Amino acid sequence: MKYRRLSSSKSKKNSMIVIRGLPSIFIIVGFLAFFFGARGAYRAYDSVNWLYVQGVVTSSSVHEYEYDDSDGYDHEGYRAKVFYSYSLNEISYIGNRVAYGALDSEAYSIVHRYPVGKNINVYIKPSDPNVSVLEPGLRANVFVFPGIGLLFFTLGCLSWVFFPRAFATKK
């Protein structure tokens, strides 16, 4: 069986995909993760200034889900599902966000704090009453998603600059 050597133009094209493609993916994914994570962090920060109205918890339960870790082991996770209703200017709304950055490990604690029928303060964004939260303010874990996004974005930018140098052929 004979093997043909790839032409230099085809080889160059393939290496350009690696040189520019991989960093581009990191840059795009990093930017999106940072953008949406930062938006959530800003909302958490801003939520302490939102007005609040009275609401009532309409549903409160813990949902179990399964996931595989990187070693292939099955694990169970728990997520609090709390729904509440509130009204503003005679318009009814339904919300489900307890806090920005709430952890799955808090699921049972959250459901215990918000039983069905409980009267609650619902903090709503003044410019968009559809956006609401029960526990306003920042939590440390709200910075994880934008932090990972910033890391991916930075790695992508560095790769964009240094990959061509690493793959350059010496003459």
- The low-confidence runs, each spanning 5 or more residues with pLDDT under 50, are none
Q: State the major sheet.
A: 5 strands, antiparallel
Which structural class matches the secondary elements? alpha+beta
Q: Going across the major beta sheet, what is the strand order?
A: 3-2-1-4-5
- End-to-end span in angstroms? 32 Å
User: What's the number of extended β-strand segments?
Assistant: 5
The secondary-structure element order is HEEEHEEH
Q: Give me the Rg, rounded.
A: 24 Å
| Total helical segments | 3
Mean pLDDT: 86
Strand proportion: 25-35%
Helix content: 40-55%
Shape: elongated
What does this structure look like?
This protein is an alpha+beta fold and 171 residues long. Helices cover 41% and strands 30% of the residues. The protein contains 3 helices and 5 strands; from the N terminus they run H-E-E-E-H-E-E-H. The chain has helices spanning 8-46, 107-113, 144-167; strands at residues 51-68, 74-88, 91-95, 119-125, 128-133. It has a 5-stranded antiparallel beta sheet with strand order 3-2-1-4-5. Helix 1 packs antiparallel against helix 3. The model has no long low-confidence stretch (mean pLDDT 86).
